[in-house]
Amino acid sequence: MARMTQEEHYMREAIRLAKKASALKEVPIGCVIVHDGKIIGRGYNRRIIDKNVLAHAEIAAMRKACRVLGDWRLEGCTMYVTLEPCPMCAGAIVQARIPKVVIGCMNPKAGCAGSVLDMFHEDGFNHQVETEVGLMGDVCSQMLKDFFKELREEGKRKKKEEKAREAGGSEESGAGVSGHHDPDDSVHKSENGN
Ligand SMILES: [Zn+2]
């Protein structure tokens, strides 16, 4: 039970990092790497803000952990990540020989710890990764759902604003040409909408 609490502590830190990503309007994914009970690497998704396809949470955390250990191998480390790793990160995890990855929730569209592929239990590779799935999984998946819901709503808001602007524009240009009734309609619609 005490170990469980410790694991939750690490995953909670990964979730905290994921929220830093969502504050930047990045998909909320966070990651920590633990060695000898200490967090030696932290990362969160910064793909858009860094304009870099490599700027995934796991890669950032691995980069820092390698610096701390002074080694490209991350043996004896455990990774805690809020979302199942993609092919790039799963590949790097295998390369780094990380023995264990704890995953919050699965990613059916891109995950490579069992969803699309299972790169962590591939006999052909010289390293297998122990996985544990579902630690604080509800929190991790709800965080993603909330993010995408907010993104969709923002998209709708923007579309609505654009439409309102366009309607306003056509009203100006059309006013002197003909007395046609579209602008009035759109005014009524937006009044009802408010
Ligand atoms: Zn990735």
Topology, pairings included?
Elements: H1 2-23, E1 30-35, E2 38-44, H2 57-69, E3 77-83, H3 87-95, E4 100-105, E5 130-133, H4 137-175, H5 182-193
Parallel strand pairs: 3-4, 4-5
Antiparallel strand pairs: 1-2, 1-3
Helix pairs in contact: 4-5
The structure holds zinc ion.
Describe the structure.
This protein has a five-stranded mixed beta sheet with strand order 2-1-3-4-5. It is elongated, with a radius of gyration of 23 Å. Strand 3, helix 3 and strand 4 form a beta-alpha-beta unit. The C terminus is likely disordered. 49% of the residues lie in helices and 15% in strands. The longest helix is centred in the last third of the chain and has 39 residues. The protein is an alpha/beta fold and 194 residues long. Helix 4 packs antiparallel against helix 5. Bound molecules: zinc ion. Zinc ion (ZN) binds next to helix 3. Zinc ion binds next to helix 3.
Provide a brief overview of the structure.
With 194 residues, the chain is an alpha/beta fold. It has five helices and five strands; from the N terminus they run αββαβαββαα. β1 and β2 form a beta hairpin.
